[in-house]
Amino acid sequence: MQTSVELQSNQELVARIRQGDADAEALLYEKFSARVYFTALSETHSKEDAEDVRAETFLRVIQALRQDKLHSADSLPAFIVGITLNVIRELVRQKYRADSLEDYEDDIARDDSMEAAFLDAETGRELEKAAQQLKPREQQLLRMYYFEELPKEEIARKLGIKAERVRLLKSRALQQLREIYKKMTRR
Amino acid sequence: MTHQEIQEGEIIERYVRHELARDERRSFQEHYFACEDCFEQVQTTARMIAGVRQASRKGLLAESAAQPAAWWASLFRPAFGLAIASALVLAVAFGWLVLRQISSPSQELARKPQSGASPGPTGTPGQNTAPSATPSPSPGKNESPKPSEEPELLAQNRTPVVLLESSRGTSPSSNQLTLPANSSSAILRIEVEPGSPFASFQFQIFDSAKRLVATATSGKANTRGSVAARVSAGALQNGKYLVKCYGVKNGQRELIGEYDLLVRKL
Q1: Given strand B185-191, what is the order of strands in its sheet?
Q2: Residue B46, class by beta-carbon neighbours within 10 Å (0-12 exposed, 13-18 middle, 19+ buried)?
Q3: CATH top-level class for A101-186?
Q4: Most buried by CB count within 10 Å: which residue of A65, A105, B71, B139?
Q5: How far apart are CA B215 and CA B206, in angstroms?
């Protein structure tokens, strides 16, 4: 949740941008650019598209703030999300209409390229090593859950456990992976 | 959306895996735009899941116990393999003899108008379009792009699409996917009965060594009965694949089709 300091700084930022303060525009970019990029990446799974979305979103946000179109600075985060999603929708429509994909807007981001989107080469290698250090059953579980995307009932049957346990064991295995990775990258 | 709701509802993971409804998704996005903790967590979770998928794809993670062999798995057993190979050799030899006899008169006829003859269409019927320049008037038909169209097509940044048609019991694969070098992903499409009861569909792609190399998930079929899912181009190399498509409903999977797929990377 937003803290009062953040609210204050959002209000301050918005006020300064309204007055044409270029430094405040840079600060706004610094504060939200990673979020806009991540949102676009998680919707499109394309780094190139995410960059385009980020650039276009900030153009529109800053223009709107300069023109005093934001009624309350408290809603700045939601305002930026709205513009980000509009830009993504427009991009998706432009890019995929020719392939008759307008019916699949919901599926645009359901692709199998999340590895390319969220991992750089080094992080990918480190995570592969970390995953191999998990116990064989943890590896099996994570593989079935996140890669093979099997239903919980099927995973439970293959591992000989109750279906209700799958979620818990999967969360623990993922947490374990996170810790191994953290230790590896701390060295 | 509160932190408690986020924790209890596994919102972060479901966000990364595109399992949230559109309004929940929007609500969580608005939350992490204002919340440092959740933004940190969602990025980490995305990386962890991507790492698991990458390691799985490369065969680095332990696999689950062997599943019951599929019908086509028996084809790879040595005894069956030998028998099939022998039968194929005989069939090819016989076919060649027959064709040789049939083609002789036509070759003779063809020799006469040789100078004015133009080469026939290239490509095998049944290749599916890769990136198509214009929406196909009959997307259900397999078509082969003319070679002369390719440079223009490749210049356009469109996602290659293959419409999968069941090939079980029929002759050679008609499902071909041509991947231009700059493609990051491709779209697999199948047609199901309109009003299909499945809540989602899952595609599993196996290479010729029967190794699972990629999965892709799609939501419900659209009103026309089309299902589409996106798969990473990086997971596919030149060669033959088997695609299994499952319908998922109430946590149960049902195999609805198996498709041969030939991938050609440019």
Answers
A1: B161-163, B185-191, B226-232
A2: buried
A3: mainly alpha
A4: A65
A5: 9
User: With contact defined as beta carbons under 8 Å apart, do B230 and A110 qualify?
Assistant: yes
- How are the residues of chain A apportioned to helix, strand and coil, as percentages rounded to the nearest 5? 80, 0, 20
How many Cβ contacts (< 8 angstroms) between chains A and B? 218
Residue with the two structure tokens 């191994």: A180
* pLDDT tens digits along B153-209: 333 446 788 888 876 555 555 788 888 887 777 888 888 887 788 888 888 888 888
Length of chain A in residues, anyone?
A: 187
* Model confidence, pTM: 0.63
Q: What is the DSSP letter of B98?
A: H
**Residues of chain A neighbouring B53 (CB-CB closer than 8 A):** 114-115, 146-147
CA angle at residue B211 from A128 to B81, to 5 degrees?
Answer: 155
How far apart are the C-alpha atoms of B137 and B134, rounded to whole Å? Answer: 9
Q: Which of residues 80-119 of A touch B (CB under 8 A)?
A: 80-81, 84-85, 95-96, 98-101, 103-104, 106-119
Topology of A4-95 in CATH? Answer: Rna Polymerase Sigma Factor; Chain: A (1.10.1740)
Instruction: Kindly list the domain boundaries of chain A, sorted by start residue.
Output: 4-95, 101-186
Residues 6+ apart with CB under 8 A from B189: B161, B162, B163, B164, B226, B227, B228
DSSP state of B187: E
The reply to whether A101-186 shares the fold of A4-95 is no
Question: What is chain B's length?
Answer: 266
